[in-house]
Amino acid sequence: MELRNNGIISKGEYENRTLEDAIEYAKLGGFTTRIVENNGQSFMLTMDLHADRLNFRVNNNIVIDCYCG
How far apart are CA 33 and CA 22, in angstroms? Predict the structure, then answer.
């Protein structure tokens, strides 16, 4: 599947969405997702880089930050 906007994202596309909505929107755009922080708790991550993966920081089920990797 081709990535939405050739893989170029803006944080505004995902910020302030519920986690479920952001994940669904990402999937429809060809991206995979992972949560890197939830309610201030950071998670241990792998160091591999994936251009088709979005990393979400979440607070109270709302995405507060999003970046590729």
Answer: 9
